[in-house]
Design goal:
- The structure is a homodimer.
- By secondary structure, chain A is α+β, with helices and mostly antiparallel strands.
- Chain A has helices at 8-20, 25-32, 115-124, 126-152, 155-172, 187-194, 198-210, 226-232, and strands at 2-4, 36-41, 46-48, 56-62, 65-70, 76-82, 101-104, 108-114, 180-182, 214-217, 220-223.
- In chain A, the strands form three sheets. A four-stranded antiparallel beta sheet of chain A has the order 1-2-8-4. The first copy, chain A, has a four-stranded antiparallel beta sheet with strand order 3-7-5-6.
- In chain A, strand 10 (214-217) and strand 11 form a beta hairpin.
- In chain A, helix 3 (115-124) packs across helix 4 and helix 5 (155-172) crosses helix 8.
- Chain A binds chain B through residues 67, 69, 71-72, 75-77, 79, 91, 94-95, 97, 99-100, 123, 126, 129-130, 133-134, 136-141, 143-148, 150-153, 194-195, 234, 238-239, 241, and chain B through 67, 69, 71-72, 75-77, 79, 91, 94-95, 97, 99-100, 123, 126, 129-130, 133-134, 136-141, 143-148, 150-153, 194-195, 234, 238-239, 241.
- The first copy, chain A, binds a DNA duplex through residues 154-155, 186-188, 196-200, 202-203, 205-206, 218.
Chain lengths: 260, 260
Amino acid sequence: MTSAAAGPEHKALVKKLRSIAPLSDEETRHLLELPLHVRQLRPGTDIATEGDRPHVSCLVTEGFLCRFKFTAEGRRQIFSFHIPGDIPDLQSLALELMDHSVGALTPAKVAFIPHESLRQLMSACPRIAQVLWRDTLIDAAVFREWMLGIGRRTSVTRIAHLLCELFVRLRAVDLAGDDECDMPVTQAELGDALGLSTVHVNRSLQELRRRRLIRLNAGILTILDWPGLEELGEFDPTYLHLKGAVRKKLGPDRTSSLWT
Amino acid sequence: MTSAAAGPEHKALVKKLRSIAPLSDEETRHLLELPLHVRQLRPGTDIATEGDRPHVSCLVTEGFLCRFKFTAEGRRQIFSFHIPGDIPDLQSLALELMDHSVGALTPAKVAFIPHESLRQLMSACPRIAQVLWRDTLIDAAVFREWMLGIGRRTSVTRIAHLLCELFVRLRAVDLAGDDECDMPVTQAELGDALGLSTVHVNRSLQELRRRRLIRLNAGILTILDWPGLEELGEFDPTYLHLKGAVRKKLGPDRTSSLWT
DNA sequence: CGCCTATTTGATCTGATTCAAACAATGTGG
DNA sequence: CCACATTGTTTGAATCAGATCAAATAGGCG
């Protein structure tokens, strides 16, 4: 657990917020002055648990975290995956009581920010408050999209959609190549996120491979056919509300398209 | 379409926000000065559609609205139900582009508030901005809870949970009696909200009636056994983040309990 | 090597869907 | 006030997507 002042952790945060909305120089300066307490997490470590009343929020710097909750019968639902730049428990700033848990999926590095400092930041820069609000609203948009999938889409479409989403989000913070990205998530975890059993996730992934849309091996996802995957997954990135620059990546066989 | 200044519409809003967080007199005064444009809606009318860029938000005054989105194959998922006091499209204040639709489920009365006025209000009363943020976060908490249900709970539990939620929310704004409330929602709509077919909703409702937990007739829900329904539905209202006063209603056969 | 965790395969079962039709309630116009 | 259209609820039967159970295989890694 180290204390950092304007280290690489801050850059992840700035990059993420810039993917949501533009930032002025002054706002950026304020962000860089946030006190961060960096900590390493091993997989399975929870940084907040249902029932907690946290006084810090955590910025992901390396690795994947997720938010989740258990059924009375002990079945788990994962609500979201979080990648570097995300602040998965930002909501605890406005909602005292945690109604779900947040934990590391992989070895991860996170930086804790005292709520105190965030409140100061927000009153100094109301625009940043806006951006943080926006961020939680985008969170909610992702929840809705997952809900639509779990409630109404077939297993194969659901998985394809999730892979599209993660790929696009990773690209938005420069953590994906042209056609591949890390995907250090087990099939059991995918199942918990998609409302499917592990066995069925496995079979649906095989279907995606059979159709030559993706490769998925040793935690690396390779997109073999982006337009195909997007179509099968019914993926339209609008709900991610990303700023212009990091838009949809087009497939190699599609010329710059007419629709915008 | 009328223009109102400090009518009954404002009271619904104040009551709702008070159920989330306390308000000072000055804050209340500011709220009462919001310009509202009241409008009557017939069932099925959409007040915002996926792709829109609204410049007003709408406060529900009478009736039920819902938010929803369609799959590529035309299957609908309802994300939330909205009752008087709610501002279902508050998010359009911070996220320009609608990524889903909002429509009336029943005959309804809504009051439109220009984004402009809301922005002024928020800069005059930063605390109200806080409360509005809180409200959207509670929205997101409800999405998560629904996700958990759709992904991991059985159909009967899912329905029971939803009925509990609506009853508690209606009580929080004084729209429910001790053991009954309006429930003007068709079984098809329940299905779209719960990720179930109409037929299966019908059968699961029969199960709830067979167990003597509820009566549901002509749009009126009667709770016959609250503790039983709560247990079957695995319902714990924490995620609604309601302020103390409007807590869980206890069953008639349970003395004031030990846990708090 | 042996342990542990993750993936894969096969066989079987079931909760929920789909399709189809009957029924009930409400409203509309003649 | 009745015939008829409309919308919602209920029932039955067939089918299916996905779950469950069980076991085999494949990778790391100390």
